Amino acid sequence: MDFVKELMFLKEQLKFRGIFDVPRNIKNIAIAGMGGSGVAGKIFSEFYSDRPVSLIDDYALPKFLSKSTLAISISYSGNTEETINFTKYSKRKGAFCVTISSGGELSSYGDQHIRLPRSDLQPRSATGYMLMPLLSSFGILSNNEVKNSYKLLSSLDKDHSKCADEASRINHGEKIPVIYGASPFKSIAYRWKTQFNENSKIMAYSNSFPELNHNDTMAIYGTYRKNDLYFIAFGSTDAKIKRRIAVTSKITGTRFSLINPQGSTDIEKMFYLLHYGDYVSYHLGLLRKIDPTDVSLIEKLKREIKSTTIS
Amino acid sequence: MDFVKELMFLKEQLKFRGIFDVPRNIKNIAIAGMGGSGVAGKIFSEFYSDRPVSLIDDYALPKFLSKSTLAISISYSGNTEETINFTKYSKRKGAFCVTISSGGELSSYGDQHIRLPRSDLQPRSATGYMLMPLLSSFGILSNNEVKNSYKLLSSLDKDHSKCADEASRINHGEKIPVIYGASPFKSIAYRWKTQFNENSKIMAYSNSFPELNHNDTMAIYGTYRKNDLYFIAFGSTDAKIKRRIAVTSKITGTRFSLINPQGSTDIEKMFYLLHYGDYVSYHLGLLRKIDPTDVSLIEKLKREIKSTTIS
Questions:
Q1: Is the omega angle on the peptide bond into residue B184 within 30 degrees of 0, that is, cis?
Q2: Contact: B215, A197; criterion CB under 8 Å
Q3: Given an 8 Å threshold on Cβ–Cβ distance, is B247 in contact with A305?
Q4: Residue pLDDT, tens place only, A94-133
Q5: Closest partner CB to A194 (pick from B27, B52, B215)
Q6: What is the ipTM of this complex?
Q7: Chain B residue with minimal CA distance to A304?
Q8: Which stretches of B75-172 are assigned E, i.e. beta strand?
Q9: Cβ contact B72:B55 at 8 Å
């Protein structure tokens, strides 16, 4: 599929539910996922905190897993080495296992398997599919929010000229984007970073308010190569965060490119910001005359790792 | 105190224990801390997973807190707004509260308060003090490891010329450090980033294996400004991580500066890598002819935020 068609397909993914059972006796939740498949868990963890949520993006596995744990494994392909490793471990520990994938090895594991409707997308273009089961199963988003988010994504699909302008400003002077979010959009700042990595093939860095005020602040003011960096902050309606952005900008003498999310709830704003970053990174890829779709190097690396693991 | 004397004082902090009670009925742990005081919790969470550990560096607070929660608040000054906010919340939720500080408002809260021996250090130079109560109370480090870590830190204190060389290579060409760690040293990679921010006043970025192989990899290969970046990776004895570093370096055509930790256990290696980064960032500050101690801008920002919050 053409990459821009993939991007436009995000809104259609909102129609998917993929509801799984959440056993009542569950005391904690562990969600495993890498890269584009890991973002779903990261987003979810900013909207749900009724129980502790641990995110696993590693070979290292937490000891606390037990039959009181809901272990959720997410991999679009279903064949991610680290995620399969976690799934086997969580089964051994007696956790209630949910697997979410479009097929692959993961589909044969799990007390419950959620099969995603399509397997022909890039994992990072299937975030909607991987996120919806989490939000739906825990009753986090309303039908109204789905409807409104669909409209917001459609409007960006129709007109992403502002995203193209943003990309052009980054590309002019070959700047390294620094993306600052704040709860509940920290994971979206990280998502922008990964999209710049994969779609635009450039380095990028994300952090969040208020944590960045305890370290980055010194660098924003005094770093060398300051003019080689491009500072982006997500606009916030939270008075404390708004104030922090303004004060940080003032005392460091730095202009932030403010991305103000549309939408009336945090979920709607989250989808808007997510998609906005999709288009900025896409346009930057085009401006650089590289193929936004191509992640052959990641695939090559996976093969090389695998071949050595087997031998 | 002279900044290099502060750095040399880290080893003395290993003699501090600061043991607090861990009630038996505790089901989960939440640790709050910002910046230099937040690093202690981040390090601890890589060495302890018998129960879910949630790290809080935000105004946003998790709903799951209850009387089954051990809530640990860490602030060197004891006056960090976000951390006090968390502490009040955790008391309201009935959690067992432990506060760790050298004084300040935090010392009047908590079912147990751990008073740190000195209040005249920079928070980021007191990591040992803030980390030891966590490692000691959960029985994570042995007397032998304390002894060996003391020796390792002493040897770096006596000769940090390799750190100065590293700093010089970064400063030559004014490069932006990209620091790659792997479990259980991800938080140390983040620590290096924050030390570059505060001691050297430069931007820096950290990530970890294997997650970075799902996004950064594309950028390491194809990004613009590649020669403006300086790639650092912590050497590992884990076969999988070792392999990933080698393959990533090969397929992206990128040289990583490998920092191989001394020490015979992960705790010892952790302290060695931590201190190594202290000295690299310190020397880079000197090379840039700026004062590594100065974080006046962070203090100014705190005052500005506070004044608006009150009015």
A1: yes
A2: yes
A3: yes
A4: 999 999 999 999 999 999 999 999 999 999 999 999 999 9
A5: B215
A6: 0.96
A7: B247
A8: 96-101, 112-115
A9: no
